[in-house]
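Researcher: Can you fold this with NAP in place?
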Amino acid sequence: MNIFITGVNGFIGSHLAKHLHAKGNKIYGGSAKTAARQDLEPVLYGYSQLFLGREFDPGIFKNIDVLIHCAYSFERKNIKATNIAGTKKWFYAGRDMGVKRHIFPTSYSAKPGSKSDYGFIKYELEGFFLQEKQLVIRPGLVLGNGGIFRRMNRVLRSFPVIPLIDGGNYDVPIISVEAVCRAVEKILSNPGPAQYQLFQEELVSMKHLLQEMKRQSSARCLFLRIPSFFPLLFLKILETLRIPFPIKSGSLIALKENQDLAHTSSLKQLGIRDKPLKEILDSSLSFF
Ligand SMILES: NC(=O)c1ccc[n+]([C@@H]2O[C@H](COP(=O)([O-])OP(=O)(O)OC[C@H]3O[C@@H](n4cnc5c(N)ncnc54)[C@H](OP(=O)(O)O)[C@@H]3O)[C@@H](O)[C@H]2O)c1
């Protein structure tokens, strides 16, 4: 198959590119940077610089069978329009060029009326892709050498005190990036339902996850149990002052909205068994 991955330089996009290439597919990609990551050079058949919401050459989608939409912009200015209109534009351009199948990674943060931009954007776009009879995958927190998980690790290692919001007593769905790749491979070879919930059946509490991450990375931070109001205010002030910080206020709002998980895992149905948390952490933390 000819597969085009947007956001190919990112965490999930780059893993998918390598995995699907190893399974005999021809991989093309686009991302915001001028060039593809060096480690993707042996894997990519073609690369295009692509910005959500900006002009592009629709010809890049010619002869593509599957378009996987991994690009997401966290740039706050016009964030909703950039992501929603930009992603739809790529969908329509792909469809006009004959792309039959699209895969959209949504999130368990996607909820009607979500107060976070992220949850709002993901909900809008998952509805759009489902209406267009395309595939939607919903990964939990993806564990591996990138994405929000790497940003969480950076915070654990950089700060002596970490606020444990609401005591960390809420469940988080998790999955390794390898299991996400195997799931996408299976979905592509035998598409069934329109939506797949990609996370382990057993949820872990945020407190347990952070404690395990701390133990395995030998971080020395202390956890301080606090209500979510204070870190939220702190992050919003940083964002207003345009001071960069690895975690965004939207992620925190989404976290609070996620405390009742409305979906059940599709991993068993796909015949995929993920590794236990400890093993995933062992392999991913060695990258940091
Ligand atoms: N990681 C998770 O735990 C998780 C869980 C559920 C769903 N998801 C979803 O899965 C997708 C991929 O996530 P990820 O963890 O791989 O994220 P990531 O590592 O942050 O990758 C995002 C990609 O989007 C590209 N990008 C950023 N701004 C852009 C813009 N304005 N125009 C075009 N491309 C832009 C980046 O390009 P450059 O690198 O070239 O700058 C990057 O390659 C996202 O939609 C995310 O919401 C992730």
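Model: Folded with NAP in place. The domain at 2-142+173-201+260-275 is CATH 3.40.50.720 (Rossmann fold).
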